[in-house]
What does this fold into?
Amino acid sequence: MVYFAYAFRTLLGLILRRPVLGTCVIPLMPDRTIALIRRRDNGLWSLPGGIVDWGEDLLSAARRELKEEAGLEIIQIERLVGIYSQVSRDPRFHSVCVALAVKAQGQPIAADPREVLETQCFEAATIPWDSLSHDHAQHLKDYFSGQTVVA
It folds into this structure.
């Protein structure tokens, strides 16, 4: 019985004390604007994205999250922007985010009103830099500078 309790505690530690894997999508619209969502939980602007579900690959998660949050579809992956793993990047929990720049199509809408207040397209000069959630300002700066980072 003692061994079972030890094994169970060890297993829980392995499962629960690991970062969550997620994705952020930089959706480039045909007019080269970038679609952002305004989050319901904190009112800040954000890249669409979320957690990769069990049994789901990263690209499928990016497609699903972009559709669920912004009503957009990925038509082409432009490039990997970075992998972001700083402990403080998400105020809710430790997560690792894979940021992808994609060519997107569709009409940007707040597709999931439980999570998203609004969706809007921004030219590079009009992005609300001081009102971006998480570490999404860094993702966008890395995108615009042409970098691919591991941070």
